[in-house]
Fold each of these.
Amino acid sequence: MKKEILRFSGVKYTYHTVRGETVAVEDLSFSVRESEFVAIIGPSGCGKTTLLSLAAGLLVPSEGEVTSRGSFGYMLQKDHLFPWRTIEKNIRLPLEVKRQNTPEHRERAVNLAKKYGLGEFLQSYPSQLSGGMRQRAALIRTLATDPDILLLDEPFSALDYQTRLNVTEDVSEIIRSEGKTVLLITHDISEAISLADRVLVLSGRPARIAYEHELDFEGVTNPLKRREMNNFSGWFEILWKELNA
Amino acid sequence: MKNEKKNCSEEHLLFLKKRRRKLILIWSLRVGILALILGLWELSTSLGWADAFLVSSPSRIARTIGSLYTEGTLFYHIGTTLWETLVGFVIAVALGYGIALALWWSETVRKVLEPYIVVLNALPKIALGPLIIIWFGTGSPAILFMTVLVGLIVAIMHMLSAFIATDKNKLLLLKSMGAGKVQILTKLVIPSSLPSFISMLKVNVGMAWIGSIMGEYIVSRAGLGYLIVYGGQVFKLDLVMASTFLLCVLAAGMYFLVVLLEKVLVKNAES
Ligand SMILES: Nc1ncnc2c1ncn2[C@@H]1O[C@H](COP(=O)(O)OP(=O)(O)OP(=O)(O)O)[C@@H](O)[C@H]1O
Ligand SMILES: [Mg+2]
């Protein structure tokens, strides 16, 4: 069994505003192992984004504890590429921020981009790329600093269905071949099933773990292949029921 | 967008041709309207339909400018006003940008100063005329002060609202990379507010001229604003019109420079 890389123990988080307080997350406990792909699904507004911010250390829990070993890469719903930077300079952004902007690191990032089909777009501006390409560039940017844990907040939901299937396919391949640990948030049950090793189902707000499933696809990790397998629809039904319970 | 003339379709050639025709049309109409106005103006005064003493005329304006030139005072007056305007503009823009940055940096300071800025913005600056004369005398410093005052608040408010409007998710993204406040400022806030900076410059070109001319109205003994006031007092409408005309040219020139700057700065930030 692989080592634990991220752990939530009894975590609570409360937002305070003038109009009152919102408990977004309460008594939340789970852990993620190295190189594991964990998907989290939950009703909208239940506290999923809050969970990721807690994991990344952008928010500090009101109660409980978040412990992690390793660095994070955060990817959001939209690509948020900076329009005034070329793709290459966008990909380099986290290196600049983390003061790792050395020739070796830059080369690593550029090679990643080339390896995953962005080579000819390095000098283009984001506006010249399609939505799918941009999202791919955003992933490469996330990978540029070689983070141990990827936190993905509905990274495909802004794409149209066709593009989404393709990008999901690409991203899955990239992430698996780079051997990253992933915490993926999604609204889309079939996306969760087609990508993850394990699925956590959250309750309504405040979010807790309502159900947890280890998915068994006989070692198949390719999203499209999984979609064609027999147990896919079985999992879909189970998760659908739990999500709407 | 690339401008490849070589291998493009018939349709595209036609499109380019139409576009050029339209551009030519627009420019000839622009020039035409100006010529028409000047022509009618000149004609109506020379035929006696209008009193040239009251409305002046293009030829009289030209002659007035010519005589200012031969007296040797033309460039003195232009230079005075231009200097006051440009220096005031630069100070207002730079200071306004700096103050806006400081206000962005500290929310507390921003909240504290907000009512002061709102009041200063609403205050008609000309009301401060007497104070300015007493504090700065009747020379260029007083006019500079007025120019800065008029542009400063606008620059602060314009830039501050642009800084604050920075995309929340891009901020989150940078923070998730571990960016500190200085990095957030240099990598995101300042570049993403570039379009607002340009529009602030454009607005402030106008503000600077308002400030300097207003200043000259109240205090000065030189400059185009002074010539206008003086011309009005001694009923030399030719002088008033000539100075106004020169102002138009200078203001347009300065605006054009800002547009040029925009072309240079925004070249890459296509989105
Ligand atoms: N900055 C904030 N201040 C106050 N309340 C907040 C803040 N951010 C989120 N909330 C509240 O906390 C709750 C959980 O928000 P969160 O964004 O984590 O949910 P989510 O599951 O990601 O939602 P969605 O499905 O829409 O992405 C929501 O009710 C939201 O209104
Ligand atoms: Mg969310």
Note: Residues 2-46 of chain B form one domain.
Amino acid sequence: MDYFFTEEQQMMREVAREIAEKRIRPVAAEYDESGEFPWPIVEAIAEADLFRVFIPEEYEGMDLGTPVTNMCIVTEELSKACGGIALAFAATGLGTMPLLVAASDEQKKRWLPRIAAGTLAAFALTEANAGSDAGSVQTRAVLDGDHWVINGTKQWITNGGEAEIYTVFCVTDPSKGARGVSTIVVEKGTPGFSFGKKEDKLGIRASATRELVFQDCRVPKENLLGRPGTGFINAMKTFDLSRPGVAAQAVGIAQGALDLAVKYSRERHQFGQPISGFQGLRWMLADMATKVEAARALVYAVARWIDSGQAKRTTTYSAMSKCFAADVAMEVTTNAVQIFGGYGYMKEYPIEKYMRDAKITQIYEGTNQIQRDEIGRGLIAAAAAGE
Amino acid sequence: MKICVCIKQVPATTEVKFDPETNTLVREGVDSQINPFDVYALEEAVRVKERLQKEGEEATVTVLTMGPPQAEQALREAISLGADDAVLLSDRAFRGADTWATSYALAQALRKLQPDLVFCGMQAIDGDTGQVGPGIAVHLDYAQATYVAKIEALDKRKITVRRLVEQGYEVCAVRLPVVMTVVKEINEPRTPSLRGKMNAKKARIPVWKAADIEAPEEKLGLQGSPTQVVKVFSPPHREGGEKWTGEPEELADKLASLLKELEVV
Ligand SMILES: Cc1cc2nc3c(=O)[nH]c(=O)nc-3n(C[C@H](O)[C@H](O)[C@H](O)COP(=O)(O)OP(=O)(O)OC[C@H]3O[C@@H](n4cnc5c(N)ncnc54)[C@H](O)[C@@H]3O)c2cc1C
Ligand SMILES: Cc1cc2nc3c(=O)[nH]c(=O)nc-3n(C[C@H](O)[C@H](O)[C@H](O)COP(=O)(O)OP(=O)(O)OC[C@H]3O[C@@H](n4cnc5c(N)ncnc54)[C@H](O)[C@@H]3O)c2cc1C
């Protein structure tokens, strides 16, 4: 279906598609197996200007006023070939969003051009005891002269160890709970900032997930984004912008699996005919395709609405896109394995990886339970406000 | 430094069809692509440019093709892959050119462009002669280095290249200006960039005719071509053969006796 993307957005899609098909697909299984970080591909993505699509033009980006839609387009295309490799790109987007949401012009000038050129970023909120309940983070930042001194540990940070620029959520005023959290940018190489071991994961194995360890890590005062105490709000605003990106990753993974399943159904013969000849199987494919298209339609509708600057109750719709697309991805990839039968269960075939990769989209940037919680609260609040 | 790349638009399939009347390629209804070897030539040119620019030197890459008006598409694609600008040589007078007339026309255009480095592919996948690159060098009296697998060094006066030859590699230093033809191992071509694609869309591509390159008609196209392709044909498919099935030992015996019978062994 045609989503009437602008000419530039169509170019972004073509550029991303070529990288996905020529550079990612041939090596996706290798990276999945080794868990190595896909630097050569990240460099290709950077050279192709794709890190520019979510950054404003005055900071050497090329967002052309539609950063969220662009982000979704590129993430979807890359994810069709590998949801894990695509995440090096998408998580940089996530790590950049707090800068877009809260940074001053001067701060933007410091970091955005570097990200536009392909320096990776990461978003560091989660801790061992603060997952869904992100407001209860404990990593502490104390002002000492012109520096913040940070102590604490962040857990499961995507691009951890590989990224140069980290947006870290720290408690600057413990008396205020979630209102005492601030966003501080920490660069790799800062003394007192180190990384834990790389996690061994079910899926998106080409993505690096690490602990960030801060031990008396001193960063300049000017690295705090916005005002002290706005960190939790920054995180929530970031999620409003970034969740459609996770949704796009889910759509890409689902579409990639569906494409392989359709192809396989025409090649595999049983009972003297291709299995695509069985109505029972075609109906499975029909449901899969319908759900993927519905998810895509929702994702781009939400992304466009956010980009329009007119969006109200963004959190509700952003959560809907992420929640729906992630559930679709899990269902579609599971059924794609089913269509491959026993072969689908084997690592020799590409399809089981899609199922493993899909699972994360129901978990990170807020689990799907949390998304439903947000949607439900939004509905009630809207009703109470007489909207 | 001025770098030029000669690219040829070729059918995007290896199953080329010929018009039996004229012995020319049937191009209608066939998708086109940049000759694959020329993509490597372009990539190398863009890399040289980028390296020079990093060192603070000026460098530009201009792509050049001789072909029908629709060859403009190949030039735009080349811009999306990092070329700065492009020239299309297109005129009815160029039609039916053999390798002599093709390299003459390209050489005349290059005379106007005044390059320091000219990159070509090692051969075109349709015509397959591999003569155009060296032909250009001879027409211009430039040095030439064919089958280049690596650029080892480059300064304002000379370039040192590693050539792929039958026995292995040969390293040679060549004075500028030079025409080089490249082999696939020289690099891994990039995919198009977003800025490249936007530039490609905006680019204004001049079309040069015979008069623009100061080329007399008798040296161009069919008229200027000493070679004429008399006949092009595909060799007939080999038919039949025998298929044997059975136990390995049994089959080996059977094969051995057949080979003896045929007096092969
Ligand atoms: C591979 C990977 C990459 C990640 N990358 C990042 C990153 O880059 N940056 C970052 O900050 N974090 C990242 N995370 C962390 C991720 O966002 C959290 O794992 C996620 O938010 C869930 O938190 P938790 O794992 O602590 O689960 P918990 O919060 O412990 O949840 C456990 C279960 O309880 C349910 N639950 C919890 N609260 C409620 C509730 N109120 N109502 C209903 N059910 C509830 C959850 O849905 C879940 O099913 C990553 C995680 C993984 C696995
Ligand atoms: C099947 C076939 C057989 C032919 N046989 C002969 C023959 O035996 N003798 C003969 O003289 N002619 C022949 N021609 C015509 C001739 O090949 C072409 O017209 C032409 O001159 C290019 O030669 P080539 O394709 O062999 O290119 P090659 O010499 O193999 O190409 C080498 C490089 O030169 C450059 N180049 C080639 N053509 C162009 C162009 N039009 N514009 C810009 N750069 C270019 C590219 O960088 C290319 O990689 C034949 C054509 C065909 C299709």
Note: Residues 302 and 317 of chain A are 6 Å apart (CA to CA).
Amino acid sequence: MQNVYVLGTGMIKFGRYPTKTVPELGGEAAILALKDAGVGIKDVEMFACGNLYQSNAMVGQRILQQIGQTGIPVVNVSNACATGSTAFREAFLAIASGMYEVTMAVGVEQMGKAGLLGGGGGAGGDPAYATEGRLGSGLMPAVFGQAGIEHMRKYGTKMEHFAKISVKSHQHATKNPFSQYRNEVTLDDVLNARMISYPNTLYMCCPTGDGAAAAILVSENKLKQLAGGRKRPRVAAAILTSDPWTDRTASLPDVSTLTRRASKQAYAAAGLGPKDIALTELHDCFATAELVHYENLGLCGDGEAGAFIDSGGGKHPGLGGHDPVNVSGGLLSKGHPLGATGVANICEVVWHLTQDERAKDRQVPNAKAGQAHVIGLGSACTIHVLTI
Amino acid sequence: MAEQAQAADSGPRPIVPFLKLQPKPHLMGSKCGNCGLVLLDTSRVACSRCGATEGFKPLALSDKGKVYVFSVVHQSFPGIKTPYITAIVDLPEGVSVRSNIIGIDAEDAQKNPKQLFDLPVEMITNVVAKDREGHDVVAFAFKPSKK
Ligand SMILES: [Zn+2]
């Protein structure tokens, strides 16, 4: 395996772009990343594109039709919410394997107002056999609600702990111009908001929206030629796991075991531990998810997530916190355009490691290593560790 | 004979294949002949845990279990009445099933979540829809067991 570096990154503000197409959104992010890297599309040797809602429609090729049809190999990736991060990993592997020296990853999604509820359906298309709501709920809000309830059952975690995460993420988002929402909320706002699926209220659920993010990856050899003396982060770990068999996973997807296995592998590959990580972008599709991932990623011990939150854990050091998590505002505020999320998280980590302008109002001090974690329900988990 | 077949054909249908309505409603699993894992499926290619491809035996599952975790769903598809309780119910055979919980007030469950943990429950069935061919579609749910 050869070393892989992130030479350039780009993303558009997450939000709603009803008049644009998916290839346009993806193309805009790609151009931003290429300019940031100081290269052109003709320098790119391989392209991995992550998109979910149009996964049967050659989104990667359609992006190249927008920005330059150079005839390079394109891989279209779909891996639930881990779609973008899996595309990034494909672009990483293409270089790590020694086959290519400059690759591009784009994650893009246009969700409109589809919402996280997704489709219904039933056997043979007859809605009479649709099970949703009749045999419990398999929808994201209920699945992640139950993950929070499981923590409550095991450790006596309180509703307020989940709510505090939402307050923190909204506070973080006020400093991020790329965030879909940039409003602060109080603990009372969160607790009194409309319940979606207990214990997650409206502000404890990520919004839906559109977005795109991109990264240009290079080999060490190309880094020397192209970086012009700029220090660029190395991809120290690029881990992907699927759901191993655990006792209840067939009825309730086990997002914790999946993440723990990925986390162990990521720290080992990077030769680092949780204390070496200056910032974590993790998959807070719901506030309950963020809480369980504090423990899954080793930011605190098992059963300690409540105390971690109460002590300022997860909060930006500039706000008096420690072990910052989702300083971008996270999925809860920044938004969660499914295919774009995993690449955008990596952009955020890169910007802190390189003291990029784009993170200037929320810069985490002395950031030498950061991690980006994504879960795709069904299930997939990616963790990327970047170091400088 | 022909009349009987027709009568059976116009009868109720289970919403999922692992719900059996005869002789009385019950859930049906498959037990791995190699590692003993019980899966909530009527047919299997291989075992999720050990990968064995042979020796699966059908296993009728208990209609009694215990609630592991739950959530209260307040937003769902059109036609689904909210709020309702969704839960993971552990059955004594070592398999878990996702189900609605009835007979407990959903708002009360949120106020006092502990009452549901390990709550003994039993299965009931109910007609939830009529399919395009006019068959009643039968689903299952769990309710608190009688003391
Ligand atoms: Zn087995």
Note: Confidence is low (pLDDT under 50) at residues 1-7 of chain B.
Amino acid sequence: MARVLMSIPAWGCLGLTLLGLCWTLTAQDALAGDAPRFVQPGSRAAALGACVESTAFMRRNHMELIKHQRDATVHQGIRGTRYSLAGCIDCHVSHTPDGQPVAVNEKQQFCSACHAFAAVKVDCFDCHSGVPRGGPARSSGGQGGGVPEGDLRGSGQ
Amino acid sequence: MMKHPDETIDHGRRAWFGLAAGVTAAVAAPGVILQIASADPDPAPVTAAARWGLLIDTNKCAAGCRDCVDACDRENGLDRQSKPPSQSPAAWTDQKAVWVRKVKLADDLTGRVTNLPLMCQHCEHPPCVDVCPTGASFKRADGIVVVDRHICIGCRYCMMACPYQARSFVHEPMHDQLTQVPRGKGCVESCNLCVSRRDHGLASTACADACAAAGKGAIVFGDLKDPASPISLALRAMPSRQLREDLALNTGVRYAGV
Ligand code: SF4
């Protein structure tokens, strides 16, 4: 009797472990399937087939592109190019129902949701604005988008 | 260097979009063309062909006027900083980021009072760049002295080294920054001669525009290397000085009437 009583929790444990394993595997599948949805519905990016490079390339290398661009911008004054951070934000920012932009680094938005998923801290927005604000330099100082449209839609990959 | 599929910019596409924008503007309204063209950034790196500078005619600068300071604050989002609740108003006045300061000089002997705006003097031999241990303080090819905030560690050596007290340190987390002027806690900053406007090919700085709009015209911005530029012509026509010329820094900002 004692042996039978002992074995029930033991089998139970094994069963739970297997169940847990199955759940973990399914959950990972589901999460991998969810990854593309970090692109926010209603953002300009949601309507485009690919980013400035292919999606797979951007997932792994966007930080290298931005870092290269940042040096070119700060030191050589090269702005508004294909890999500009302002361009990323312009295209990936989503909007509230009343049309207010929601910062890309706000919870569940494009940058923060994926970075939370990958457990990588993002520092860009300590200094950079998470929404397009103020537009590119103009003598009139009007509100507007970051980079010319043509630069965002190029790759078609 | 990393590899990626397509590093080159398609200049043909670019030209086509430029042309398309130009044609649209021409159809819409002739006056708009300049603005659209000028908002398009130049994809080429800055060169030493130009050296940007300011000439400030202190005789035209009025006591009590702060138009250039306010314009600078608006242009660079400095008007978006707010006093931390724990700080006294006096400490905040001392500590908040200021890129242009109004300075009043009084001659003890004669009693003559001179007003002038004081900002980064964009030295040819900048002491801030000499002392910076990380290379964050640097001078662009076109003579503009800038801090690369990605590299700045906030040690503030440059603030101590600057003879003009032109630099500020950001002490608190920032919010609501402008896209063209990223700013954040832990970095040093100062006047960058509206560097974003330079890269977009605009004609002037926010301070010079505001001073002209106020009818004073005390600030002239331009290319010191171009002998035909308004600033070069004005420098040739009237006596001017560098502040602390004894330091032989060859400043890009010159003053008349001091
Ligand atoms: S505060 Fe930043 S820019 Fe100034 S000296 Fe230190 S690292 Fe250089």
Note: DSSP finds nine helices and nine strands in chain B.
